[in-house]
Amino acid sequence: MMQSINAIRVMMLTYCGQNLPNTQITTVIPKSEWEKIKRIIYPEGSRAPINAKIKDVGKRIAEYGGFIIGSKRRPGVTTTWRGWQKIQILLTGFQHPSYAP
What we know:
By secondary structure, the protein is mainly α.
């Protein structure tokens, strides 16, 4: 069941990033989860955008899956899926009892 939810989110990230690139990320990812993901893909020292767009977040997530940013390249489903899986692994650290923000 969890794989299905992740697959739907990855498809939405990929296709909304291509067709509706200026839509806010909170339309695909819930705000509570976005706050955690934001801490991973925008580490300390880099500035996270206030109103993040699906296009930008999709590229950042795909970078974790091996996507190399090019001038007019767009990430596909495979690299977005791999990046999403890695981010989900990192998110388990936020649920660990010893984590204190």
